[in-house]
Task: structure prediction
Amino acid sequence: MKNLLILAFVLLFSGVLKAQEQQVVVPYTLADRDRAILTEAKLNTLEAKLIALNDKMEVRFESQQRQLDDLKTLFYWGFGILISLFLFMLGYMIWDRRTAMQPALEQSSRAEANSRNLIITLREYSKKHADLAEILRTHGIL
Result:
């Protein structure tokens, strides 16, 4: 009985091992080979399209880069001209103010000279007239 049980166990166990030992073989047919060839051809065409698209994008990028460079140059020139005009206007305003103030400064210097002459004259005249000397002293001129 014991032998029978061992024999049954060995036969059962060897059947399980034999089942695990077998490999499943998938047959590779001509249809599979044709499908692989078609897939490879499609991949090649997709790769060619991507290369063409990349080249097209590079050309477009280069043209946009050129346009940006042209626009940047235009801005530099525009800002340069504006700054030059502002500096010119500032110089013109300074020159105009000096030119406009020149007659007023000359007139004020003449008026100052006239005031000095008048004070000198009044001091000389106050030496002979005491009442004028008193008035000049009260105002701090003498």
In short: The two ends are 158 Å apart (CA to CA). The chain is about 90% helix and 0% strand. The chain has a mean pLDDT of 86. Residues 30-126 form the longest helix (97 residues).
